[in-house]
Amino acid sequence: MSALASVLVARGYSISGSDKQMSERLKKLEKSGIKIFEQQSASNIQELLRKESLSPLIVISSAVKKNNHELQAAQANDLTICHRSDILSALISNQPSIVVAGSHGKTTTSTFITTLLTTTKQDPTAVIGGVIPCFNSNAHSGLGKFLVAEADESDGSLIKFEPTIGLITNLELDHIDHYKNLNELIQTMKRFSKNCEHVIANYDCKYLRESIKSSAWWSIEQTHGIDFAGKPRTANGAQTIADFYENGHLIGEITIPVIGLHNLSNAIGSIAACRIAGISFSELEKNLCSLKTPGRRFDFRGTWQGRQIVDDYAHHPSEVKATLKMARLMINTQTSRLPRLAKRLIVVFQPHRYSRLKEFIKDFAITLGNADLVLLAPIYSAGETIIENISNEILAKMMRSNFPDLTIKIANDFKELTQLVQNNTQEDDLILTMGAGDINTLWDKLQNIDNRIKSDNQSISVKK
Fold first, then answer.
1. Which residues contact residue 244 at a Cβ distance below 8 angstroms, ignoring those fewer than 6 apart?
2. Rounded CA separation 401/406 (Å)
3. Taking the complete model, does pTM exceed 0.90, yes or no?
4. Residues of the chain falling short of pLDDT 70
5. Which residues, 6+ apart, have CB-to-CB distance to 206 below 8 Å?
6. What is the pLDDT of residue 464?
7. Rounded to the nearest 10 degrees, what angle do helices 414-424 and 442-463 cross at?
8. What is the pLDDT of residue 53?
9. Exposure class string for 27-60: b at 16+ Cβ within 10 A, else e
């Protein structure tokens, strides 16, 4: 929603919006000329009707409930109401577009594509779910011909999009509050693919191979019969080096300054999209050094009392597995993008949604075992109703059964979680916070501890 608002205000539209609480992102939108209401109430609609000469178009996301007071006021005043996907669909259809879909890696891949188009002087418009490092924002209204967008499959609304190029990263069951089974997700993705002029898909995903008719395939596992391939040669905690192929022919060696084979796959898909968009390989190769993962994707937050804090959005077992595998490349090695040596991997995990934990609890109980210590935060409900017998305690019990030698501790709230981090970690630990909720605020809470210590020390000094 914030990305759409940012692009639309840059294009001259009068934009206002509301949220339940102020945030740094909302403050940035306010500075761009957007009217921000700091609460969601019927009075917001009444104020717009008094001040605006034209009736406002009301845009909602799937997170807005039917009993929302603003929504009810808009309905009572017979205002036009549309879903965010309708606005994004209009932007996608208005210019040549590259839309990234799939279960995992959408934000990273769309960020890579945006970065490559930007560094090759294309100045794209971007509407993405995470912060793009080269813009320090999740959106950009460019003057170039291309628009890059991330297509969220969580509510099925991506079937409205008709992009020039559609890229699909992979398919795996998720968002079980919307999809009953994997087949429903596959059918949705097939409908999306049929709306695209060109489809690029990941050959390494068997569900895509079996169900999607693709204009071009990419792979990091094989080269024969593949349009774009990157066979890894070196993968460490600092970079990934691969041989790049087009149509089975070796083009040259490339270096990706991001970590993990899943990110190599995201990078090869991004190169494929840019090549189909008409960008030469030589231009792309020169600018691969500019690639950075978006915000909350293995995001180094800083060093706290000798511990290095990294935040990641991983909230599905496959994402957790890939992130932990990537983190392991940085433990007890000098070949790392981290500023100092890390000796232990500490995971602070916040389950996201009761429905997701219920569906994948056995998988989480296995994948989280690749840590030296696990601290479990309470479930971030994302508005869901509590499900009986689904909790971080149940997850901890299953993990202890799988890994009896692994230390696992649970917290009932953030205050307790912060104390667990303080009391159970040590210098030279890599502390990896994971989850799609508000676990990223743990860094701020740890900073507050330092601030209190400094304040106390200053007080003692004054008394002396």
1. 228, 229, 230, 250, 251, 252, 253, 254, 268, 271, 281
2. 10
3. yes
4. 452-464
5. none
6. 59
7. 70
8. 86
9. eebeeeebbbbeebebebbeebeeeeeeebebbb
Task: State the residue for tokens 């500490």.
Answer: 346
Q: What is the mean pLDDT of the chain?
A: 95
Structure tokens at 111: 């960020």
The contacts of residue 220 (CB under 8 Å, 6+ apart) are 204, 229, 230, 231, 232, 242, 261, 264, 265, 268
* Ramachandran region, residue 379 (left: φ > 0; alpha: ψ -120 to 50; beta: rest): beta
- Please state, as a whole number, how many other Cβ atoms lie within 10 Å of the Cβ of residue 354: 20
Nearest to 144 by CA among 168, 116, 107, 166: 116
Backbone angles phi, psi at 338, to 5 degrees: -75, 150
**Residues shown for the chain:** 464
Please report the pLDDT score of residue 461 as a whole number.
Answer: 61
Which run of H or E residues covers position 3?
helix 2-10
CATH 3.30.420.10 fits 299-450, yes or no: no
Please tell me the predicted confidence (pLDDT) of residue 455. 64
Question: CATH number of the domain at 2-79, please?
Answer: 3.40.50.720
* Domain 87-290: assigned CATH number: 3.40.1190.10
146 with 277: CB under 8 angstroms?
yes
Under DSSP, is residue 4 helix (H, G, I), strand (E, B) or coil? helix
Closest Cα partner for 402 from 435, 363, 353? 363
Each domain of the chain, given as residue ranges in start order, spans: 2-79, 87-290, 299-450
Contact 34, 3 (CB under 8 A): no
